[in-house]
């Protein structure tokens, strides 16, 4: 959808509902750390049955608000039926982009929607078959991201975010959520997201579309639950190969137009489609307990036995198109075609998961203690993939410049799953998660994860001791990959093992959280140039163990209406030039809050992000991998952003000047060699919600 058409659609929807609208906001994560810090216990849930009965017995003069909408996720429904109120606050509202999250910063190619990777060391805790293409993951809508609702009335949320500087529109993001209950126990939800941008430099015109429909049904007896969704992703991102010149070292007085600055590729792009269906059914056996909070309408459904079946069907299609000669030596040598690349990969996954859950607790559940939970299950995954190229070197007139299949295969995995939880009391608990692939392509892969939680009083806080061990087969792109510019056949990349120990202290009263982690990684897998400073990226593996210490500290101070937040990370490894992450990272947020005119709840503040120098990775176009090449590091300076955000009735909005200090210390900065980051720009966002 073109951006002009999107604007017309957006404002048409706005005009249609202005007459009877009410406003609110759904953040990307409406519960979790922030919710817990605000004093809401994970065990506290909200039932709206009694509210519904009271409202139905009254007249028509009902003013609907967010209290009539409850929300949850598939993960929160694993052990019991629990829902949470909508979070309509302004926390982190201005950090709307997945690249801007304060506690998970990203390096990228210069714009939202372009390939990215974490700035800090964040290994994936997954087990099973993996293709290895994750550069576009944050822009996907996946089953685990779907929100499920219980609503008294139809609820719609529209969000729009835009950034611009001069004549350049760096990005425009539109998000829509609509949900309503068909019956009191049956809900339907629709999601639609669109991201478009032109960027500051040539060929940064991203076009992303996400859509999903979801349903949640719970039987009247509370024994049967059904979660289902259909999801669709179409991500199209140009590949410009980076700018030709160093755009931040311009002679004084020299005329310079960034949109006219030369780039190394002018018609290459990647297209990633990820579509599928997800159905999860649960049935409770035996006694069903309820946990009620005195003086409130909160209730939590606690089963004693449960059978669950999950079906997942997923197709992924990755395409890289190059319709031009490689005049700037962006790629290593070609294998099948000197000027045209049409590399594609298709992957189909069918998953069936069966599990049985057993809960043992005392008859009194006014607060849960001395409770045992045990989940055992089996997961069967079937994978089939094919890889294609366009071959101009194939002999025979009828075979030249034809799409040709170069490899394909089918794999399966059988994985055993077990989860264990024991609540000694309401202040002491032990949890374990064990996954082991016992047959198939990933035979021998495992994830053993455990944590011990010790909670004191409100002043003492709580301590979480954690440990996990993980063993993973190398992703497909590390083992066997055939494309026009990159071919890896039966490489000797072995499994990667990660052992982790962690200590986490959280004190809600002091608004403090501290986490220290130690990683021991054997067989660390990464991409690196085969020649010093070269562009011939290839899979690599460390022969020696990698040790890494990571300490993160978050603290908030409140002085009346003034607030100060700081998140600091220190990480150090004996292979710092291999993992290519900074040693220090800091995010600071200072803001002033006040209620204006008795209706406008506003925050006025400034945030700053900073990290120390590190060896910047290169980016391998065509395979979507960040790799190590030349030991080049760039000077780093704080990125300072003043902002104003506010809630007016049921509307959340913000305006900010991102990277306002550009030109004071530096003309710009790089995070990847050599892709310039966005310039300073004025950004605004608004989120409306309608209850009708």
Characteristics of this structure?
single chain, 692 residues, mainly beta, 5% helix, 52% strand
Explain the overall architecture.
5% of the residues lie in helices and 52% in strands. The chain is built from 5 helices and 35 strands. The chain has helices spanning 3-17, 33-37, 49-56, 476-479, 576-579, and strands spanning 69-73, 84-85, 106-108, 116-118, 147-151, 155-165, 168-183, 186-196, 207-218, 224-239, 268-292, 299-323, 340-360, 371-391, 402-425, 428-440, 446-455, 462-472, 481-482, 487-488, 496-507, 512-522, 525-529, 537-541, 546-559, 562-573, 584-596, 600-611, 618-620, 625-627, 639-648, 651-658, 670-672, 675-676, 681-691. It has a 22-stranded antiparallel barrel.
How is the topology of this model organized?
Layout: H1 3-17, H2 33-37, H3 49-56, E1 69-73, E2 84-85, E3 106-108, E4 116-118, E5 147-151, E6 155-165, E7 168-183, E8 186-196, E9 207-218, E10 224-239, E11 268-292, E12 299-323, E13 340-360, E14 371-391, E15 402-425, E16 428-440, E17 446-455, E18 462-472, H4 476-479, E19 481-482, E20 487-488, E21 496-507, E22 512-522, E23 525-529, E24 537-541, E25 546-559, E26 562-573, H5 576-579, E27 584-596, E28 600-611, E29 618-620, E30 625-627, E31 639-648, E32 651-658, E33 670-672, E34 675-676, E35 681-691
């Amino acid at each position: 959808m073109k951006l002009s058409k999107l604007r017309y659609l957006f404002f048409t929807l706005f005009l249609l509902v202005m007459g009877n609208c009410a406003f609110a906001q759904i953040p990307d994560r409406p519960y979790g750390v922030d919710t817990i810090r605000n004093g809401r216990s994970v065990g506290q849930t909200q039932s709206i049955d009694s509210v519904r009965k009271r409202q139905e017995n009254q007249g028509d003069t009902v003013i609907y608000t967010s209290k009539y909408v409850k929300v949850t996720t598939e993960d929160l429904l694993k052990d019991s039926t629990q829902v949470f109120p909508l979070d309509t606050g302004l926390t982190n509202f201005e950090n709307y982009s997945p690249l801007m999250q304060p506690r998970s910063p990203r390096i990228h190619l210069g714009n939202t929607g372009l390939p990215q990777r974490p700035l800090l060391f964040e290994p994936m805790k997954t087990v099973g078959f993996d293709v290895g293409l994750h550069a576009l993951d944050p822009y996907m809508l996946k089953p685990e991201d779907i929100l499920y609702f219980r609503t008294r009335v139809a609820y719609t949320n529209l969000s729009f975010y835009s950034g611009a500087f001069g004549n350049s529109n760096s990005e425009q993001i539109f998000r829509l959520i609509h949900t309503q209950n068909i019956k009191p126990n049956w809900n339907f939800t629709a999601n639609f997201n669109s991201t478009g941008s032109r960027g500051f430099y040539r060929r940064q015109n991203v076009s992303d579309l996400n859509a999903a429909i979801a349903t949640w049904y719970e039987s009247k007896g509370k024994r049967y639950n059904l979660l289902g969704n259909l999801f669709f992703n179409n991500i199209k991102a140009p590949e410009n190969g980076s700018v030709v010149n160093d755009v931040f070292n311009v002679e004084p007085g020299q005329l310079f137009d960034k949109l006219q600055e030369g780039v190394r590729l002018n018609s290459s792009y990647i297209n990633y489609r990820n579509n599928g269906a997800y159905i999860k059914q649960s049935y409770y056996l035996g006694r069903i307990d309820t946990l009620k909070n005195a003086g409130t309408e909160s209730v939590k459904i606690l089963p004693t036995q449960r059978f669950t079946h999950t079906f997942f069907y997923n197709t992924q299609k990755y395409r890289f198109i190059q319709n031009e000669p490689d005049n700037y030596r962006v790629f290593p040598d070609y294998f099948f075609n000197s000027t045209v690349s049409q590399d594609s990969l298709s992957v189909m996954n069918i998953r069936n998961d069966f599990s049985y859950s057993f809960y043992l607790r005392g008859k009194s559940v006014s607060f849960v203690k001395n409770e045992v939970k045990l989940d055992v299950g089996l997961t069967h995954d079937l994978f089939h993939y094919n890889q294609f190229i366009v071959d101009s070197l194939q002999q025979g007139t009828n075979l030249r410049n034809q799409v040709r299949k170069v490899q394909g295969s089918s794999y399966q995995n059988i994985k055993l799953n077990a989860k264990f939880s024991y609540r000694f009391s309401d202040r002491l608990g032990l949890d374990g998660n064990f996954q082991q692939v016992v047959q198939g392509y990933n035979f021998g892969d495992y994830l053993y994860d455990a944590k011990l939680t010790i909670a004191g009083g409100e002043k003492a806080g709580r301590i979480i001791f954690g440990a996990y061990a993980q063993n993973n087969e190398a992703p497909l792109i590390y083992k066997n990959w055939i494309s026009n510019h990159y071919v890896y056949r039966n490489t000797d990349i072995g499994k990667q093992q990660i052992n982790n120990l962690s200590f986490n202290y959280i004190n809600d009263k002091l608004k403090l959280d501290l986490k220290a982690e130690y990683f021991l990684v054997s067989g660390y897998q990464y991409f690196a140039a085969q020649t010093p400073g070269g562009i011939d990226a290839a899979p690599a593996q460390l022969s020696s163990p990698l040790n890494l210490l990571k300490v993160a500290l978050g603290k908030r101070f409140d002085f009346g209406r003034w607030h100060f937040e700081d998140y600091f990370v220190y990480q150090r490894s004996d292979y710092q030039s291999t993992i290519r992450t900074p040693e220090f990272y800091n995010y600071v947020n200072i803001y002033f809050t006040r209620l204006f005119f008795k209706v406008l709840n506003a925050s006025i503040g400034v945030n700053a992000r900073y990290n120390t120098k590190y060896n910047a990775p290169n980016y391998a176009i065509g395979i979507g991998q960040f790799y190590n090449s030349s030991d080049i590091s760039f000077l780093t300076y704080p990125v300072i952003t003043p902002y104003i955000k506010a809630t007016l009735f049921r509307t959340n909005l913000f305006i900010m000047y991102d990277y306002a200090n550009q030109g004071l210390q530096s003309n710009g900065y790089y995070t990847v060699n050599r892709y310039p980051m966005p310039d300073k720009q004025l950004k605004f966002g608004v989120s409306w919600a309608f209850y009708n």
